[in-house]
Specification:
The chain is 79% helix and 0% strand. It has 151 residues and is mainly alpha-helical. The protein has one domain. The longest helix has 70 residues. It is elongated and about 115 Å long. The relative contact order is 0.09.
Length: 151
Amino acid sequence: MIDTETPKKPAKVAAAPKFDLPKVEVPEMVRDFAEKSVQQAKDVYARIKSAAEETTDVLEDTYTTATKGATEFNLKALEALRANVNASFDYSRELLGSKTLAEAVELSATHVRKQFETLSTQAKALSTLAQKIANETAEPIKAGMTKLKVQ
């Protein structure tokens, strides 16, 4: 069966009524208040933006200092490791070349004493370096905090 109904006409949409707002003059006090509010918002935004930029600069300086310090510390630690490994190889070579038990005992005692002194010196140097790096890394943060407190 074929539908023979006639198509329906779309319903007319009523136009929205037009209301004219009365022309009211905004009192000067309200205008001044609005202008001051906008200016205050701009000032606050500028201060927040400035603080965010300063904080970013402090973090970048801190990261750079920490990275340099870590690199310096790692190089110093690798240098100490290399020296200790070389000393151990030298000791092993000398020990294998010893002719008597007394000579081997003497070499061992000497090696242990030298290694203890060397390790003590290396530990002090690394500790001093770590303290220096920690102070240098904290310096940008301290300076940034002092600057923020002043403002």
